[in-house]
Amino acid sequence: MADQICSSCHDTLWLAIEPDSDEEDSKAPASSHSVPDDVELSCGCHFHWECFLEAYAITECPNCSKDISSVSSSGQQQVVCTVRNEGGTQQGYDILPSATEEAYLRTYPEERRGHAYLEFCREGDLDAIIHMIKDTDTEDDDGEAADEEIEGSASPDVDFLTYSGTFEGIQGSGLHVAIRYGREDVAWLLLALASQLEWSKFPPPVLQAMESLGLSREDRVAATEIRSINDSDGRSPKQLAEEVGGPWRLWVEACRFTV
What we know:
The protein has 259 residues and is of the alpha+beta class. The protein folds into two domains: 14-103, no CATH class; 109-253, no CATH class. The chain is 33% helix and 16% strand. The chain has ten helices and twelve strands. β3 (38-40) and β4 form a beta hairpin. The longest helix is centred in the middle third of the chain and has 12 residues, at 96-107. The radius of gyration is 22 Å and the shape is elongated. 28% of the residues are buried.
């Protein structure tokens, strides 16, 4: 890999990582380091991760046009490659789902913000979710409003709370995603903001956590009911919770998903 370059941008497959602020503030001398960013295809061509997603077309290598697809043991089409990054080397990685997802978002850029919202639900990033929902404006050093938009957004008025995804892993509403990935804190947040669940059913620690996040009961979106949204398989959040089980059984028994 040391002598390889990206077949798309023709730059090195190593990325320079600058020292973080904690290191800069410490007495130790700040130092940068490099990490690999390499997607090696079956044809032998190499790409940066983002460069491959940008250049990918159907199942041919964007550089040499060789067929890079194969069929998995389950009969599904796949594009198997070797990925090298800061986390190490992953052989036999199927990059087709990521490439298909990115191709869709480039075709429908208005979906990108909603897609990012569901990713934050999957990751359990409450701060990011709240920032997107409240569309918070921050002022830069010159005093001008600087809204941190997600790149590719075509509509700042997307109702993230009722957005429903169709990709594997982020299928359905944010509540579906929270249930699938065991994000109880995200589920509570979405019920507080986008359901008509009675406030008496919210544990005091949840309401206190809302206040610590800068939210109040007045932030609930009127007449919104996220619990009534079905995923692409026709499952309501309650039905998915029953399937997943675990701690969600208590939620079902407490009728938190019942509309």
